[in-house]
Amino acid sequence: MRAKTKELIFQGALKAFAEKGFNETTMEQIAEICGVAKGTLYYNFKTKEDLYIFVMESGVQNFIGMIHDYVDVVNKNDFRQRVIRLIEAHLDFFQNEQDFCRLLLSRSWGTQERHHTIRYVLQEYFVLLEQELQTAKEKGKLPSNIEVNAVASSFFGMIGFTAMRTIIHEGTLDNPGLRYSLQNLALHMLGIFEED
């Protein structure tokens, strides 16, 4: 699939799924929004579920890329700053990709099939987050008895659902008070109370 067609399909399907939900969206509607022939859509995606997985995987890959861009510039030993940059990456991504945020955090949880898809596409995200936490734990930056999986889930939930609620209420994630609050909550949750 050509890059331009792929991007058109991604953007159109994302918009349709985010606005109408998976069950209410048809392949015909998606083709119309994308401005591509229905045959082109079916040639590249045999089912709506295949297209949904493509949208979710592409969105999460964009998300992971942004996290790397934000965090990889910080010294690996400066865990406090890496956590702050992680939060900034999440909030900036969700602010800029509100359709994806809605799709990921709200309507996606409707059926058991969607749950499986969400778990599948977020697997790489959680591996990234858990590796960051595990490295910090091994370096003594986190308490030795902390459960890395639980912290990663809590981190995602705290930031993700704060973002979703803000977007639903037509607020902005560029709010300094919101960012400060999330940074403090996350740092305290991790036992980081002052500069290292």
Helix content: over 70%
| Residue-averaged pLDDT | 89
Number of domains: 1
Major sheet details: none
CATH C-level name: Mainly Alpha
Question: Pairing-aware structural class of the strands and helices?
Answer: mainly alpha
- Number of helical runs? 9
What is the number of strand segments? Answer: 0
The CATH homologous superfamily name equals Tetracycline Repressor, domain 2
Shape: elongated
The share of residues in extended strands comes to under 5%
CATH topology: Tetracycline Repressor, domain 2
Query: What is the CATH architecture term?
Result: Orthogonal Bundle
Tell me the series of helices and strands, N- to C-terminal: HHHHHHHHH
What is the CA-atom radius of gyration, in angstroms? 18 Å
Give the CA-CA distance, first to last residue. Answer: 48 Å
Low-confidence stretches: none
Domain HTH tetR-type: 3-63
Protein name: DNA-binding transcriptional regulator, AcrR family
GO molecular function, one term: DNA binding
Organism: Aneurinibacillus thermoaerophilus
